[in-house]
Amino acid sequence: CRHVHWVLGDQLSEADLYATGFDPAKDWVLMVEAKAESTYVWSTKPRTLMFLAAMRHFAEELTAKGARVLYQRLDAPQHTGSLLGELDRALAWLQPAALHLIEPGEWRLRAAIVALQSVPVRMHEDPHFLCSHAAFAAHAKARKQLRMEYFYREMRARERVLLGKDGKTPEGGAWNFDHDNRGSFDARGPGLLPPPEFVPPDAITLAAKAAIDQVLPDHPGDTEDFAWPVTRADALTSLDRFIRQRLPLFGQYQDAMWTGETWLYHSHLSAALNLKLLNPREVIAAAEAAYHRGDAPLSSVEGFIRQILGWREYVRGIYWRFMPQYLERNALSAHEPLPEWYWTGNVAMRCLSDVITQTLKHGYAHHIQRLMVTGLYALLLGVDPKAVHGWYLAVYVDAIEWVELPNTLGMSQYADGGIMASKPYIASGKYIQRMSNYCQHCPFNPALAVGVKACPFTTLYWHFIDQHRDMLKANPRLAMQVRNLDRFSADALTAIRERATAIRQSGGQP
Ligand code: FAD
Ligand code: SF4
Description:
Blueprint: E1 3-6, H1 14-19, E2 28-32, H2 36-39, H3 45-64, E3 68-72, H4 83-94, E4 98-102, H5 107-114, E5 121-124, H6 133-141, H7 148-159, H8 203-215, H9 232-253, H10 270-274, H11 280-293, H12 298-322, H13 350-362, H14 367-381, H15 385-395, H16 401-412, H17 429-435, H18 456-467, H19 469-473, H20 479-486, H21 490-505
Helix pairs in contact: 3-8, 7-12, 9-11, 9-12, 11-12, 12-16, 13-14, 14-16, 14-18, 15-16, 18-21
The structure holds flavin-adenine dinucleotide (FAD) and iron/sulfur cluster.
Flavin-adenine dinucleotide binds near residues 254, 273, 375, 404 and 412.
C-alpha cells in the first residue's frame, strides 16, 4: 500500500487523521492494542477499558465509512504483546512506502518511533492542541520562570476567548475569578445533584471488557460500573449535558468534596478530550456560548476555560520542554515506598479510602481529590515521586503521561523543585475538613497532631515543615507556617516526630 497511518489509542479523531493526508483509497489505518501498555505501569481495568473500547468504536466507524483498518486486538492469537512488535508485523504485511502518525503523548514511545529504521516515518505535530511546541518555546524563551497564569492570559488574548468588547481586556474586567471558586458545601451537603451523564456499555465495549478480564485478570479496579462515553457522538452528548446541568455551579464547587459523591459539578470530559473524541476548541466554545446566553456565570465559565485553555495546554508545554530529565527529578529526596493500600482503598483514613475506592471503581477523581487527598498524603509521607507517578498513570481513565506527569511529579509532589508550582501544596487535615465531610466519618481528628486520634495528615504536615524548614522559610508564602511550627514545645515536636516515624514504619497508616 502507499502509506500506513498508525492511529494510537489517544489519537481517535477522524478530522486529525485526514489532516495528516490519509487517503482511504490508497492507505491503510493501523491500530494496535498491546498488553505491555497496561503492564509497564499496573494499569487498572477501567483505564485499559477506556482506551480499548474507544479504539474499537473508532475503528468500527472508520471501517463503516470505507477505510481499510488493520486492527490488532489484545487477545489476538500470536500477539507479540507490544506496540512495536505488532507494528513490525503490520509493516511486513503491508510494505508501505511510509508510516504516518500523529506524535504520541509519551516521550518513551515517541523516542522509540523516531529510532525506527525499518520504514520512513512521518511524524505529524498534534493538531488537537491550541499551543504548538514552537509557540510554547517562544513563550518560555522570554521568561526566567514559567507560571501558568501568564501563559493563560497570553492564550486568552491569542485565541480571543472571553475578551471584552475592545477585544483586548478580559471579559468582566479580570482574568481570574478564583476567589469566587473555593466554595464547600454546607452541613446539608450537595443536595440533589444532576445525574451522571454516562452511557451503558454496548456489545463492543463488553467484548473489550471480556478481553481485559482474560488477558489482564489480576489488574486492579473493576469495570462493572463502566459507563464512560467512548464515541465522539456520546462525548458530544456528555459535553452538552455538562454545559446545561453542571457548568453553572462548576466554579463555586470545583474544590468541594463529599463522602460517596463521585461526580459533583465537574465535567468528566478529561478522558474524552485526551483520547481526542472531543476537541478543546469546541469545549471552550460551548462554555463561552453558555456565558453569552446567560446560562452560566462568568466565574464558572472562566474557571472551566482556565482548566482547558490554561492548565491543560500549560502542562503539555512543561512535559515536552523538560522531558526526559523531568521524570528523574526528586527535589525533596523522597524515597518512601507507596503504601500498598493505594491499590485497594483498604485504609482507616476516611478521605483516602473514599477517594481511592471511587478511583478504582470508576477510574475517576476530581482535581482536589487527586491533589489534596491522595497526592497530598504521598507528599507528606515522603513517597518516591516515581512510585506516585506510577500510581497516577495507572489508575485514571484520563491518564496519559504528557498530562499526568507534570500534574503528579510537579504540581502535587513538588519533585521538580518549583517548575510547575511556586510552592509545595501542603496542608493539614483541617483543609480536608473544610472542603468535605470526610472527617465526620473518620476515626481521626484533623485538629490533632499527636495522640491515637491524631489525623495522620496533620501529624505529617507538621513533620514535613520540620523536615523542610529551610526550604519553606525561604518562600514568603510558606514562612508563616514555619513560624507556627516554632511555637510548638520541644516535647510536642518530639511527639510529632515519633508519630510520623511510626506512621511510616507501619505502611503509611497509624
Ligand atoms: P474538570 O474539573 O471538569 O475540568 C475540566 C477539564 O480541564 C478537564 O477535563 C481537563 O481536561 C482539564 N484540566 C483540569 N485541570 C487540569 C490540570 N491540572 N491539568 C490538565 N488538564 C486539566 N488530568 C488528566 O487529564 N489526566 C491525568 O492523568 C491527570 N493526572 C493528574 C494527577 C494529579 C496528581 C493531579 C493533581 C491532577 C491530574 N489531572 C489529570 C488534572 C485533573 O485532576 C483532571 O484533568 C480532572 O480531574 C479531570 O476531571 P474532569 O474532566 O471532571 O475535570
Ligand atoms: Fe482524612 Fe484526617 Fe479528616 Fe480522617 S481526620 S478524613 S484522615 S483529613
